[in-house]
Amino acid sequence: MLWLLLCFTAGLLALIIYYKVDKNEDFDKIPGPKGLFLLHNTLDFLEGPVFAFYYFRQLTQKYKQLFKLQIGNKKIVAIYNPEDAETILSDMKYITKGYPYKFIKPWMVEGLALSTGAKWAFRRKLLTPAFYFNILKIYKIILEENSRKLVENLKCEVGQPKTDVEHYLQNFTLNSICETAMGIKLDEESKDFAKEYKQGVFDLSNLAIVRTLKLWMHSDFIFSLTELGRKQKRTLQMMNKFRDRVIDTRRETFKEDDLIIEDEDVSFKGKKRLAMLDLLLQAEKQGTIDADGIKEEVDTFMFGGHDTSATALQYALMVFANNLDAQERVIQEYNEFFSPTDQSIPLTDLGKLKYLDCCVKECLRLYPSVPVILRNIEHSVKLKDNVMPAGTQCIILIYDLHRREDQFPNPNEFQPERFMTNNPTWHPYAYVPFSAGPRNCIGQKFALIEMKLAILAILRQYRLLPVTKPEDIAYTSDLMLRSTEPVYVKIEERT
Q1: CA–CA separation, 300 vs 94, rounded Å?
Q2: Cα 70 to Cα 126: distance, rounded to the nearest angstrom
Q3: Which of these, 482, 130, 149, lies nearest to 297 by C-alpha position?
Q4: Rounded distance, CA 473 to CA 491, Å?
Q5: Total-model pTM
Q6: How far apart are CA 208 and CA 213, in angstroms?
Q7: Looking only at Cα atoms, what is the longest distance across the chain?
Q8: Could you identify which of 51, 283, 479, 490 might form a hypothetical disulfide with 465, taking C-beta atoms 3.0 to 4.6 angstroms apart as the criterion?
Q9: Sequence-separated (6 or more) residues with CB below 8 Å from residue 49
Q10: Mind listing the pLDDT tens digit for each residue in 245-278?
Q11: Helix 133-153 vs helix 444-461: angle between axes, to the nearest 10 degrees?
Q12: Residue 354, H or E segment
């Protein structure tokens, strides 16, 4: 009996100490849903990723500027007002990615998306030349070629009651990132790998979200013992084979002496097109990056360069299908500057298509491919109306930031004319589809060119008709803005 009393007393004392240590006055002042003693808000997320997506939307409606949550001992502050977003995104002190990103570390390790400090700064500087303007001009030629192939592949869908465009877009963007950034064309054997790779991306993203929402899955040891852990291991083995095949193929033809980098200019001596992977292979020969570092960056850019663009294009085609007048205006604008028979247009002339640019930007406002950004707050920071303590996990809800009525009147409506003005009324950090500040997306210019060329190629050949409407879409929490069901359009020949 005495032992039971001692154990009870020791346990109670431990709980009291934990509770006292866990308390933080600044965090407690931030509004948010009440949780249970010790468990806090952990149980709020047991219903899964779909519930979590809409739960966050409910909280943004209730708490207009920000709110707090706590899962286990992880303190979380969600922000979705532009002033606070600027505070976090513009400061180098807050570039370290948040705790949940550890669940994709087995995949991307410490590539550009996950690294921080000096390693991130070096890799960013190393890879920036791959997106210089003269290299984008070369990429543009490849993207146009692949856009024409995309149009050809869609022919079999003409006249069908509905088309799930995701498969076609994933193929287009994966082929494009391989040919541009990696410098290789996928052969027939690689295409079989690619099919598995695309499914692997989806699976690993989903596993990361499941682990984030389930506290007991945070332990690597416990996760490794589950079927989900074994599935992740199998998926990583398959994806590593595909990645290594890409690297080995380019390595066979790479010659360091051919590569010339001067200020804003980068090129090869010969006829070969430069790829981002060449910069990594050159750095390896110079001893500034090793083979594992190359793998990290290839994994990062293979994912970031194809899944984000495919997601954005999927929603953009759905938007155009539901706005026939916008389709016609894009084609009319194109015909004002170019011949209907033109197969290629100079990259500098792409900027003439102002309305197309506005449509793409508005699609990215409504449907940002990456709907949230997470940062680890290592130093206490003063927000607009609150203080976020050190050790907090900060979630920037881009999806909600983009739909603030005080920044974008009628925020749920597709109104590309918003972007016609040279002096927008919204806060500079109210629109951040590619993040912002020092850690913004290195490939955002590439992504915008890819989107515009694909949309132009499709709309010049086909008319898109509505099937899935914006209000039909049900979302689930994921690294990307994922829908629970396919997003459909109907395709007919343009006459």
Answers
A1: 21
A2: 38
A3: 130
A4: 19
A5: 0.92
A6: 9
A7: 92
A8: 490
A9: 206, 209, 210, 213, 476, 477, 478
A10: 999 988 888 766 565 655 555 555 555 667 889 8
A11: 30
A12: helix 354-366
